[in-house]
Every structure is written in structure tokens, then in C-alpha cells.
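Work Package 3 (structural annotation) set out to generate three-dimensional models for the target panel prioritized at the project kickoff. During this period the team completed the workflow that converts sequence records into C-alpha cells, so that structures can be stored uniformly alongside our sequence database. As a representative example, we reproduce one entry of 82 residues exactly as it appears in the project archive.
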Amino acid sequence: MANNVLSGVTDDQLVNNAFNRAGGSDVEMMRRLKDTLEAEMRAASALSDKIHRLNLSLLLYTIAIALMAAFQFGAWLRDLMR
């Protein structure tokens, strides 16, 4: 990446410069915004993957409990029929 001359400028200064149309600082502000949004999208995607795995695990546990309950119900019915 090229040496960025605006890397020492604060975000507030960039916003003020862009608002005042002071030059190329609006490009730097947009670059920082893009980088921030990309980082947020990566974090949201990682969280979404974790939630998906948790939902899948809960579904499998629910199916296992339902199968155990069905087995118990079948055993109870069998005992009643004897």
C-alpha cells in the first residue's frame, strides 16, 4: 500500500475537511468508512456462522430427545398391553 499522507489526520478533521470541500480528504474519509464497514461485515458473518452452528446443534439435540421420548412412550404402551 502506498504511503498515506492523511493517515495522521483524525476522523473529525477529515469530516470537517470534506464538509468544507478542502480537497482530497473526502477520499480518505470514504476509504476509512469502507474499511470499517468491511470489518463489521466480517464480524457479522462470523457471528452468523456461530448462530447457525448453535441452531443446528439445538435441532439435533431436539431430535435426539424426541426419539428418546418416543422410545419411552413405546415402552410404556408395551407395558400397558401386557
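The first helix runs from residue 11 to 19.
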